[in-house]
Amino acid sequence: MYGNDYAIVMPRADKSLRKHLMDAGGALPLEECVKVLTDVVTALADLEGDSCTAI
Prior knowledge:
The structure is a single chain. By secondary structure, this protein is mainly α. The chain is built from 2 helices and no strands. It is flat, with a radius of gyration of 14 Å. The chain starts with 16 loop residues before the first helix and ends in an 8-residue tail after the last helix.
Protein backbone atom coordinates (compact mmCIF):
# COMPACT_ATOMS: atom_id res chain seq x y z
CA MET A 1 0.00 0.00 0.00
CA TYR A 2 1.03 3.55 -0.65
CA GLY A 3 -0.67 5.69 1.94
CA ASN A 4 -4.32 4.60 1.77
CA ASP A 5 -4.01 3.52 -1.87
CA TYR A 6 -2.78 0.35 -3.48
CA ALA A 7 0.06 0.49 -5.98
CA ILE A 8 0.94 -2.18 -8.51
CA VAL A 9 4.65 -2.54 -9.14
CA MET A 10 5.73 -4.51 -12.18
CA PRO A 11 8.66 -4.69 -14.55
CA ARG A 12 8.78 -2.11 -17.32
CA ALA A 13 7.76 -3.55 -20.68
CA ASP A 14 9.99 -3.24 -23.72
CA LYS A 15 7.12 -1.42 -25.46
CA SER A 16 3.54 -0.47 -24.71
CA LEU A 17 0.58 -2.62 -25.67
CA ARG A 18 -0.56 0.26 -27.92
CA LYS A 19 2.81 0.20 -29.77
CA HIS A 20 2.66 -3.59 -30.00
CA LEU A 21 -0.83 -3.38 -31.53
CA MET A 22 0.24 -0.69 -33.98
CA ASP A 23 3.27 -2.75 -35.02
CA ALA A 24 0.95 -5.72 -35.61
CA GLY A 25 -1.29 -3.67 -37.90
CA GLY A 26 -3.95 -2.91 -35.29
CA ALA A 27 -4.93 -6.45 -34.38
CA LEU A 28 -3.25 -9.45 -32.79
CA PRO A 29 -3.78 -13.10 -33.63
CA LEU A 30 -6.26 -14.82 -31.30
CA GLU A 31 -3.50 -16.87 -29.66
CA GLU A 32 -1.62 -13.72 -28.67
CA CYS A 33 -4.82 -12.02 -27.46
CA VAL A 34 -5.44 -14.95 -25.14
CA LYS A 35 -1.88 -14.65 -23.80
CA VAL A 36 -2.23 -10.91 -23.11
CA LEU A 37 -5.63 -11.29 -21.45
CA THR A 38 -4.42 -14.25 -19.39
CA ASP A 39 -1.58 -12.08 -18.05
CA VAL A 40 -4.08 -9.34 -17.13
CA VAL A 41 -6.51 -11.75 -15.45
CA THR A 42 -3.69 -13.42 -13.52
CA ALA A 43 -2.47 -10.05 -12.24
CA LEU A 44 -5.98 -9.02 -11.19
CA ALA A 45 -6.60 -12.36 -9.48
CA ASP A 46 -3.33 -11.94 -7.58
CA LEU A 47 -4.61 -8.61 -6.24
CA GLU A 48 -7.50 -10.44 -4.63
CA GLY A 49 -5.27 -13.23 -3.32
CA ASP A 50 -6.81 -15.79 -5.67
CA SER A 51 -4.81 -18.04 -7.92
CA CYS A 52 -5.48 -18.28 -11.63
CA THR A 53 -4.21 -21.06 -13.85
CA ALA A 54 -3.16 -20.05 -17.36
CA ILE A 55 -4.93 -21.72 -20.26
